[in-house]
Amino acid sequence: MAQQEDQFKKIVSHAKEYGFVFPSSEIYDGLSAVYDYGQNGVELKNNIKRYWWDSMTLLHDNIVGIDSAIFMHPTIWKASGHVDAFNDPLIDNKDSKKRYRADVLIEEQIAKYDDKIEKEVAKAAKRFGDSFDAELFRQTNPRVLEHKAKRDALHERFAQAMNDNDLDALRQIIIDEEIVDPISGTKNWTEVRQFNLMFRTEMGSTADGAMTVYLRPETAQGIFVNYLNVQKTGRMRIPFGIAQIGKAFRNEIVARQFIFRMREFEQMEMQFFVRPGQELEWFKNWKETRLKWHKALGLGDAKYRYHDHEKLAHYANAATDIEFEMPFGFKEVEGIHSRTNFDLSQHEKFSGKKIQYFDPELNESYTPYVIETSIGVDRMFLSVLCSSYEEQELEGGDKRVVLHLPPALAPVKCAVMPLVRKDGLPEKAREIVNDLKFDFPTHYEEKDSIGKRYRRQDAIGTPFCVTVDHQTLEDNTVTLRERDSMEQKRVKVEDLHRLIHDTVSINSLLRKLG
């Protein structure tokens, strides 16, 4: 666990040092849980968004995009349930004066039981070697069974309390499990209270005439209130989808783990409108489609898993998360939800406008059911960064830090370097840059030794480096170096575009999806 925490700290430090992510307002000592994306970070982030957007809008002829406003009529949030029910259960420690999410404290306690089980298994594996049967050990070892019984009993109580929205029961679990405040080390807890996560502000020219509006806590509602506009103007027939990428805002109390949980974040959401009765079939379909999208990046299939929801939101009849193995455990990066017709029905009720879909095949009007796929851009960014980071020991005692970013997502696709800064080599290198830069981000690098330049490009995840030397001026060939293998080969300048483009194009990912 400590090793994983150290690794995560290195990744956070690397992200700042190489221009991926900076603490926001840093010269003013920062702003808690708010971050800025640097010159390499914004390119990586934009490539993730491009991959998602194209996979939705290019590969599906029945999905289109919109960009709705962040400010929306406040009644929208009343209709959606956010004004009354968008809450986190919070508990304070009286000694440290720190506030925590009660559900997170309990989830961490469950994780401690899981860790104890894994430690027992790891110890036994070390003791018994190749003959060790991990599954049999889990089923028969008394200590493992004891930990598992406690874990399962806690999990059952926790799920019940969350389903019943029973704040007293949540507090009682914290007391019974003797959960201590990580700062003060005491168990001096307050009652559990609900806290609404929406940011609010005022819109209007005078204080008296101002209207209370909210910064949207999700992008989905902008799609729902526009779905009929899109359907009519685009002459869409059910089933069809509407995709959107945009900022959302939540006043998170427990915002941590770098960019995993922030107060200002970005979502990529697609709402897919279907006939009532067909929603669970489409839910299964989108569940498989979205996992395939993630796996196409090649970050490791074993790093993904589904987590089906035990507690369904009031609007859902099926829900699952796609979780990714971060350095701090498996965490949600995407949610797929069958939202039924809740949102559209609520907006029809609160607006007083008829927003039903007329189905020409059935010759009737109805309120469509909705399948939602919702992915956090920042969490996706973090999963790519964490799984790509590696510290390598090389032959001869040398070391390098390399980001094995999927080439299509890498901020810089190619760096062109003159071997020396004279003899016409810089001019030739710039000529190559000027030829390649129209199709993919290409950098010119001339400072430091060629080895240091390679290391710098490895650290930001550049898939290819091109070295221009004296032989280039004679036969128009260059050295093409590949990031992961560090293999170098001599290629013709006119072949560079083809050799690089096929690997770094977003199309190379999209073709895997069919």
Number of strands: 23
Give the CA-based shape.
globular
Helix content: 40-55%
The total count of helices amounts to 18
Structural class: alpha+beta
Fold-level CATH name of the largest domain: BirA Bifunctional Protein, domain 2
Report the radius of gyration as a whole number of Å: 26 Å
Family: Belongs to the class-II aminoacyl-tRNA synthetase family.
Catalytic activity: tRNA(Gly) + glycine + ATP = glycyl-tRNA(Gly) + AMP + diphosphate
InterPro entries: aa-tRNA-synt_IIb, aa-tRNA-synth_II, aa-tRNA-synth_II/BPL/LPL, Anticodon-bd, Anticodon-bd_dom_sf, Gly-tRNA_synthase/POLG2, Gly_tRNA_ligase_bac, GlyRS-like_core
GO molecular function, one term: bis(5'-nucleosyl)-tetraphosphatase (asymmetrical) activity
Task: Describe what you observe in this structure.
- Keywords: Aminoacyl-tRNA synthetase, ATP-binding, Cytoplasm, Ligase, Nucleotide-binding, Protein biosynthesis.
- It is found in: Cytoplasm.
- It is a single chain.
- The strands form seven sheets. Strands 3-9-10-16-13-12-11 form a seven-stranded mixed sheet, with helices on both faces. Strands 20-19-21-22-23 form a five-stranded mixed sheet, with helices on both faces. Strands 5-4-6 form a three-stranded antiparallel sheet.
- It is globular and about 75 Å long.
- The protein contains 18 helices and 23 strands.
- The model has no long low-confidence stretch (mean pLDDT 90).
- It is of the alpha+beta class and 514 residues long.
- α3 packs across α12 (342-351) and α7 runs antiparallel to α8.
- It has three domains: 1-67 and 213-393, Bira Bifunctional Protein, Domain 2 (BirA Bifunctional Protein, domain 2, 2-Layer Sandwich); 87-196, Herpes Virus-1 (2-Layer Sandwich), CATH 3.30.40.230; 402-513, 3-Layer(aba) Sandwich (Rossmann fold).
